[in-house]
């Protein structure tokens, strides 16, 4: 699991304990476990993927019901379940395509509502270490690859001639959001590529998401390609998004 050692201990012990009290969280845990078994046991991958999908569906059903009563009593379970739901969506993608990626963006945006609403409670509870930014002495020096990539992202926000004002404003804002997500992740996370890849889809405007779906704006597509490269960098480190390696060549 991502995070510092203390956060990994929470995922390994405290989160399962919370799952015994909240079935939707247990379904999220079981889905994540099944996805990992599919990853490490290829001959039985289809069997474990079916289990993962079944538990993911049950988790989403229970999670959506519990949202009506989101508060201090269940925020930790909802937070953990929402986080796992996103990771499971990346791990259990039926295909690795632009369409599925955008669907995953939409799920991420929905789950971010839970995460953002619960943060004040989480910060003062037993799961606080999961969301606490890392100190500078806990971070490794950014890789040369990520540092040069940040410069590319920054260049993507420059104005261009012969582009409509509306299209240009939309692209520049989304590019700046990607730059900020990566810059913040480099400063606060030991896993900046993953953190930024999970953050940017929750920040883009709805009209930019619609432009991604339409696919008619070449500059919007180029920005999506930059995101895909970021996702590929993260996939080199994390098994649950390993299926997205090479996505920039397929869209």
From TrEMBL:
InterPro entries in the cross-refs: Fun_TF, Sterol_Uptake_Regulator
GO MF, one annotated term: DNA-binding transcription activator activity, RNA polymerase II-specific
Protein name: Uncharacterized protein
Protein's organism: Curvularia kusanoi (Cochliobolus kusanoi)
